[in-house]
Amino acid sequence: DTEVTQTPKHLVMGMTNKKSLKCEQHMGHRAMYWYKQKAKKPPELMFVYSYEKLSINESVPSRFSPECPNSSLLNLHLHALQPEDSALYLCASSQGQTRLNYGYTFGSGTRLTVV
Amino acid sequence: GIQVEQSPPDLILQEGANSTLRCNFSDSVNNLQWFHQNPWGQLINLFYIPSGTKQNGRLSATTVATERYSLLYISSSQTTDSGVYFCAVERIGAGGFKTIFGAGTRLFVKA
Hints:
Chain A is mainly beta. Chain A has no helices and eleven strands.
């Protein structure tokens, strides 16, 4: 079992819906990330939170809104998505600010379909 | 920006065979990691290996940072080794950290 828990595992939403993806870790990691992965492609970084502050936003459209309520939780709020936003959304965490310094731990992902 | 190339893109093995996956990167990097993504999408850390050689069971990895490549060795392959193997590098520059994934090697191990 992964030590990074993502919910829900699957989500189908309409283009006018508002939904949230959740990610939780209890390893004491202080950096958390959202990645987007399209089929047969590598993961693409969306956001990085370091010590609960947003440190990286990779020019992600505003219909994706991240939130880090505390050091263990990371949310991704979704609103007015497009069908091309359908993908696997992965959460990851790591110790400290050097993301690969001790290795990432990934969650099992949320498979999102926008209809 | 830095380029990360993995080869081969696809690989089919008979169970029990050995294989070598390669990751080339175009510039110096601070960190490198190998991941396995299983058919259900779960990404698993295999090795954190910015340089040197590490072994874990049937898997081992070598990174030659001065020559800008890393190799992942799989010995006595099993059907559960199927999936996609990603190499990811991290480079620290003026703009902060940048993590780049290679396109992956898709492995299928036949029983």
